[in-house]
Design a protein that fits this description.
43% of the residues lie in helices and 30% in strands. It is α+β, with helices and mostly antiparallel strands. It has two domains: 39 residues; 50 residues, IHF-like DNA-binding proteins (HU Protein, Chain A), CATH 4.10.520.
């Protein structure tokens, strides 16, 4: 499902125009990204939890040359599905 498909479904289910639904979906994603960037945890009951985890620095290999390289530490977004979502997907 693409973002456009999601906008179409939101428009169909709410009765809003596609333009208004697109604004809603975009605002939701922007708000979530801003919250995660600020270090907040986002919990949507029945759906899941979004959070940011720190990934430690590690050693890796360049696949072309085989030389060892250092991969820097970074923060990555993580999603953990809730029970209701797990049940719905089964």
């Amino acid at each position: 499902m693409t973002k456009a498909d999601l906008v179409d479904r939101v428009a169909d289910k709410t009765g809003f125009t596609k333009k208004d639904a697109a604004k809603f979906v975009e605002a939701l994603f922007e708000s979530m990204a801003e919250g995660l960037a600020a270090g907040n945890k986002i919990s949507v009951v029945g759906f899941g939890t979004f959070c940011v985890r720190k990934r430690a620095a590690r050693k890796g290999r360049n696949p072309q040359t085989g030389t060892e390289i250092r991969i820097a530490a970074r923060k990555v977004p993580v999603f953990r599905p809730g029970k209701a979502l797990k049940e719905a997907v089964r």
